Amino acid sequence: MTDSDRQRSGPSPLGPFRYPVFRNVWIANLLSRFGGLIQSVGASWLMVSLGASATLISLVQTSTTLPIMLFSLLAGALADTFDRRRLMLIAQLFMLVVSLMLSLAAWFDMLTPGLLLAFTFLIGTGAALNGPAWQASVGDMVPRDDLPSAVALNSMGFNVARSTGPAVGGLIVAAFGAAAAFAVNAVSYLGLLFVLARWRPPRARARLQRETLGHAMAAGIRYVALSPAILTVLMRSVIFGLGASAIPALMPLVARDLVGGGPLTFGLLLGAFGVGAVVGAYFSGGLRQRLSTESFVRLALLALAAASGITAFSNIVVLTMAALFVGGAGWVLALSTFNVTVQMASPRWVVGRTLALYQMSAFGGMAVGSWLWGGVTEHAGLATALLVSAGVSLGCLAMGLLLPLPTAQKLDLEPLGRWKEPRLAMPIEGRSGPVVTTIEYRIDDDKLREFLQLMVERRRIRRRDGARHWSLLRDLEQPDIWVERYDTATWTETVRHNERATKADAEIGERLRALNTGHDRQRVRRMLARDLDAVLDDADDTAALDQPLTDPARQA
Fold first, then answer.
1. Residue 404, preceding bond cis, omega within 30 degrees?
2. Which of helix, strand or coil describes residue 488?
């Protein structure tokens, strides 16, 4: 197929497999996820075997997803500021060690419900550390046009494992016990460790000092808070996770109480859910070409609500499997759409953190939901919990009337690359600051309304990319002169702020330059704020005023 044919037909759902790095990591991830699903079956059924309450059983799901809510932002900051490959290696090694300890504890019959939850929490912590680095790396492995297909393939990979792993896990638990399931999971990490150890991704040479983790996390939160498209996805994903979590959290009880089965039946139900997810992921590309982003998610939410409702009333294994097949398709369609929308709306410098915040929202909703549905089951029954969860999914669908999901595929978020670090008359160090920047505009009265409207968007972009104390000033003696003013903490942050501009942001700057009377070059001043008293105290003469301010304690 030629490039022109590919553009007309849209990206192929298997297109990302053209890239060896993505293909190798995907296969290794598939094996690792296969082991993870076997471990999940072992943990859930072991909790049932220990005679735990419905709340404790549902907390197995919570203990896996809660770390994602707690630690994803830290993991996202690490993914954006450190080597992602090494971060994934550390996470995989950590999960390997914990899985070995879990299998030994199960083998020697040392596990209690509390200890089992602790081990699953630690494995979830490793997954939380790994997730943002892996998802952010996908955009480095495949071109932007293939990104939706790559995300869908990642979901497909997980659900290929889900479609067979739980059934195999059920057989392993029934034949050899939970310890064997945990041991299989430990072995499954080895393939991914081998692939990651051999992968040598290109490393961009850092020009600026690395952000501290605190500043990096704050920058990620600020970026999302000032990005309406991403914020909408996060709000919707919380409600989605709350409603969708009921099916996986309560599935052991569905297998035991509603259809009267054992661990093998539990595995078959999980397998049906996974097969539905695989089918949904494969056909998601074609559906995405025909439906808007919002319509796509509404279809997914309807599928999830229908699956929960039918499962609540069914006592026939085949019917429940059919319902879960539909629910699995809805699950993967919604999650992959949320993920793609966040990635498409995020430039590379912050994508790990935006994905982390998305994960915190979706999996935070799942963690709370898993606990909630366990409590509802204990007080009102399993069928009631499933029906209420279906109502929550329908509520997430209704949210789309007020908060429709954006379409971000057309945004060009590559670095603009126009800003050049100026030659300064004064010597300055990277930690010198604060630095105040002013930009002067001359605007005629007939252009004033358009100018002010553009400045609203300019303010959002400036603050989103790290500017502080943004303000717009008007000259009282020459009313046609307007001055945009903002500051950054240091000179390094000034450079970082300007280099974060994307090609999608360029339109605002070009329109502002066009409004500037006579199309004159905008007058830009960069000034170093000085604490005059502190400078004079340390100086024998006023020559000290010509030296750079480098001590943060003396900054104004």
1. no
2. strand
